[in-house]
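Q: I have 477 residues here and want to know how they pack in 3D. Can you give me a structure?
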Amino acid sequence: MLDWKKVSVKRLATVVIASLLLSSSQVAASGVDVSSYQKIEEVKQIIDQYHLEQVEEKDIIDDAIDGIVNGLDDPYASYYSQKDAEQITQLFEEGYVDSGLVLHDDLDGNVIVIDTLENSASDGKLELGDIITKIDVEDITAYGAVYAAYWLSGSDGDEITVTVLRNGEEREIKLTLTPYDFSSIESTMIHDIGYIKMKQFSEDADESFKQHLDRLKEQGMEKLVFDLRNNPGGFVDTAMNIVKNFMDKAVVMYTTDASGITIPATIIDGKNADFPVVILVNEESASASELLTGALQDHEVATVVGNWTYGKARIQQYFPLSDGSVFGLTIQHYLTPNKRDINYIGLLPDVYVYEEIPQFITALHTAGVKQMELKRTPYGVEVNGHDLQATFNMVENEGTIYIPYTILGALMNAEIVYDYEKETVQFIQGEQSTIYDMNSEVFQAYNETYFIDVAVVQQTFPQLQWSNKDGELHLKY
């Protein structure tokens, strides 16, 4: 069972919460002003005596604590009832409870299934290319993949009816949500580059990270791409331990608690990395992800690629209460080793790239990959043989193929220069350069995405090779 106490560094004197459960005499004995809490007891007595409907005392207490939390001016403070805490514990212990579907919005607004995760509720029931039209009775055609994914999650045992179009025929498929294994770390080799993707800083992720890193080294890894995109954080101690794989001794962050004293948090028994490191981040990389990234960026150990990060430089502690509920409170804020406060701001990458697929391609270029190959189907994208579990839309018009110009530019490792007044885009690759008019036939625009004619770009950059056959687009540069 998840040990909430392990998240704590000290016990909290929860006088305010405890007072809700104590008599006036007990509150007075604790040294707290009785008048401050007498009202709560009076209100409770009035509810018990006069309210038309019976209210459970437990519900009153839970709502009162919620009120305290909401009044703290602490956006990260939280209170989990016993039931909620048990569900979170289940999440840590058993895995995610959702459909296990990977979804994509196509150009026509359809929600397309592009993958089903192994051992999930959808495994073996939905197929690649299924178009989801309804979830239970809710028509989701106007909402898209993000909302569909939300409606496809729930609790263990929940039943969901998914309506899909498959080969033009409508089918209803019943799913029963169950927890499935969720590996917080994945790794693979891409040429001589080790790639590690960490989805959260779970309690034992530091040990798992080292195992993956050692395995990649045994396979001949010379460089590392460390992917922290969409990683919301987790255990601070885990992040500190992972930093030890990159530096022997260093200040990882500075922390300040309620006393107002700022102290360095250091490591002293690590090992300096003897390989180049690239860290991938995006707007959902938060908390412990930013702590680790900020440390390696400030110490110039890693090059950071991606989007501005989330901006959460506050550390929470979770205190288990006597009835099984849990109270979370911000106890520290931290600064990076260069004393940057990134809260509400985030970290600015060394190489700014906004979109998911261009981010990955740029990370490989930054790590030293000279030749890039991309294979695209309606249900997936592979870059240098690595499955991204994503795809992108493509426009085909009378034999002309258009793809998002940001992806093509990233593949070519081209510098892209925008002229907003003239509405042009310039591709610069070494000594070669071409300016494209975004209002010309070279471009097609759909849903605020600009697609560029691949053949036209090839005329200026003959190193670009491409083919499109039987639904597979191949690009090489």
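Q: Anything worth noting?
A: Confidence is low (pLDDT under 50) at residues 3-27. The chain has four domains: 4-94, 101-176, 185-316+330-356, 371-476.
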